[in-house]
UniProtKB/TrEMBL annotation, chains A, B:
GO cellular component entries: chromaffin granule membrane; lysosomal membrane
Essential cofactor(s): heme b
Catalytic activity: monodehydro-L-ascorbate radical(out) + L-ascorbate(in) = monodehydro-L-ascorbate radical(in) + L-ascorbate(out)
The organism's place on the tree of life at top rank: Eukaryota
Principal subcellular localisation of the protein: membrane
InterPro entries the UniProt entry points to: CYB561/CYBRD1-like, Cyt_b561/ferric_Rdtase_TM
GO biological process: ascorbate homeostasis; intracellular iron ion homeostasis
Organism placement in taxonomy: Eukaryota, Metazoa, Chordata, Craniata, Vertebrata
Biological source species: Papio anubis
Record's subcellular location: Cytoplasmic vesicle, Secretory vesicle, Chromaffin granule membrane
GO molecular function annotations of the record: metal ion binding; transmembrane monodehydroascorbate reductase activity
All residue ranges annotated as the Cytochrome b561 domain in the record: 26-227
Bilayer topology: Multi-pass membrane protein
Protein's recorded name: Transmembrane ascorbate-dependent reductase CYB561
Length: 258, 258
C-alpha cells in the first residue's frame, strides 16, 4: 500500500518546471517550421506532390519529416509535457503518436518504392536507404516491444522497470537516427537534382541547407528536453504504483504479487 | 570536512560494473575498425593520401574520422573507463584527448580548404560544410568554456555544478552532430565520385555504406555507455570534494569559502 501513497504524493507534488513550457513551445515552432519548409521546398522547386505521377517521389520526404521526425519527436516529449496527467493516459497518447508516425512513415516508404518500381530505378543501394530501412525496422520492433511491456497488461513488474531505461535509450537513438537519415536523404535529393548548381549557391540549395540545420536543431532541442534531469516526470514510485493499479484493474492481480 | 570523507568513501566504493569493460572494448574495436576502413576506402578507391597533390583532399575524411569521431568519442568515455582514478587525472586526460581531436580536425579542415583553393572550387555551399563549420565552432567553444570552468582553478564551485549537466549535454550533442556530419560527407564523396555507378552496387559504394553504418553504430555505443545511469562515475560529492581539494592546493582557498 505504501507505493499507492507515494503515487498520490507524487501526483500532488508534480509541478511544471518554469522553463519547460518555453522549450516545448520552441520545439513545436521548430517542428511546424520543418514541415512547412519541407512543403515549401517540394512546392517551389520540385513541382508539388501527387500520388499518380512523377511527383509521387515527393510524398516520401514530406511523410518522413511529418512521421519520423515531427510526430516521433513529439511522442518522446509526451511524458515531459503531460507531467500532471495520469500515467495511463500519457502512455496511451505516447503509443498513439508513435502509431500515427509509423503509418505516415509507411506511406512515405510505399511512395518511394512505388516510384522506383515505375521508373525502373534500383532500390536500397544508398547509405540513406540502408539507414532508412534500419530506422524503420528498429522503430517497428521498439513499438512492438514497448507495447507488450508497457501497454499489454501481462508483463511482470520487475521486467518493466528493467526494460524502461533501455526503451528510453533506444527510443532516443532511433529518433536521432531518423533525423540523421532525413539529412542524408535531403543531401541526396540536392546532389541528384542540383548537381553543379549546388556550389553556385542556388536558392534551392540554400533553402535545403537551412532545412537541414533546422532538422538537426529540432533533434537537439527534443533531446535536451528529454534528457534534462530536473525535467523528468517525478517519481518512478508513482509509475510503479499506477502500473500496479492498472494490473490490479485489468487482471485482478494483487499489488503484493510482484 | 564531511565532503572530504564522502570523497574517500566514494573512492573506496567505486567498483567497475561487470558489463562495462565489454561495451568499452566493443566501442574501441568499432572505433579502430572505422579508422582502418576509412584508410582502406581512401587507399583502395581514392589513390591514398598525400599533402602536395590532388590526394590532399583525402586527408580530410581520415583526419575527421580520427579526430572528431574516434578521439572525440573516446574523450567522452574517459570518465566511465577511469572510474577509480583521481578525478583530476581523468579531467586532464579528457581535456588532452579533446585537444588532440581538435588539432587533428584542424589539419583536416586545412586540407579541404587548401584543396578547394588550389582547384578553384567554391567553399561552404553544402549542408555537409555548414554542419562541419557548426561542429567545429561549437567544439572549440565547448573546449574553451569547459577549460575555464573545470580546469582553470578560479571558477566558483556552485557555477561548476550548475554548468556540469550543460557541458555533458552539449558534449554528447556535438559528438552526435560530428557523426552526422561525417555521414553527410561520406554520402557527398560517394555521389560526387560514383554517380550512376552507386546504384549498380559498386564495391566502393557498398564499402562506404558499411562504413556509414559503423559510424552510426559507434555513435550509438558511445552514447549508450555515456548515458547508462548505473555506469556513471559514482558520487558528485566525490567530485566536489576533489575540485575543492584542487582549489585548496592551487589557491590556498578554504573548502568552506564557496
Amino acid at each position: 500500500m505504501s507505493s499507492v501513497c507515494l503515487s498520490m504524493e507524487g501526483g500532488a507534488a508534480a509541478s511544471t518546471p518554469a522553463a519547460l513550457p518555453y522549450y516545448v513551445a520552441f520545439s513545436q515552432l521548430l517542428g511546424l517550421t520543418l514541415v512547412a519548409m519541407t512543403g515549401a521546398w517540394l512546392g517551389l522547386y520540385r513541382g508539388g506532390i501527387a500520388w499518380e505521377s512523377d511527383l509521387q517521389f515527393n510524398a516520401h520526404p514530406l511523410c518522413m519529416v511529418i512521421g519520423l521526425v515531427f510526430l516521433q519527436g513529439d511522442a518522446l516529449l509526451v511524458y515531459r509535457v503531460f507531467r500532471n496527467e495520469a500515467k495511463r493516459t500519457t502512455k496511451v497518447l505516447h503509443g498513439l503518436l508513435h502509431i500515427f508516425a509509423l503509418v505516415i512513415a509507411l506511406v512515405g516508404l510505399v511512395a518511394v518504392f512505388d516510384y522506383h518500381r515505375k521508373k525502373g530505378y534500383a532500390d536500397l543501394y544508398s547509405l540513406h536507404s540502408w539507414c532508412g530501412i534500419l530506422v524503420f525496422v528498429l522503430y517497428f520492433v521498439q513499438w512492438l516491444v514497448g507495447f507488450s511491456f508497457f501497454l499489454f497488461p501481462g508483463a511482470p513488474f520487475s521486467l518493466r522497470s528493467r526494460y524502461r531505461p533501455q526503451h528510453i535509450f533506444f527510443g532516443a537513438t532511433i529518433f536521432l537516427l531518423s533525423v540523421g537519415t532525413a539529412l542524408l536523404g535531403l543531401k541526396e535529393a540536392l546532389l541528384f537534382n542540383l548537381g553543379d548548381k549546388y556550389s553556385a549557391f542556388e536558392p534551392e540549395g540554400v533553402l535545403a541547407n537551412v532545412l537541414g540545420l533546422l532538422l538537426a536543431c529540432f533533434g537537439g532541442v527534443v533531446l535536451y528536453i528529454l534528457t534534462r534531469a530536473d525535467w523528468k516526470r517525478p517519481s518512478q514510485a508513482e509509475e510503479q504504483a499506477l502500473s500496479m493499479d492498472f494490473k490490479t484493474l485489468t487482471e485482478g492481480d494483487s499489488p503484493g504479487s510482484q
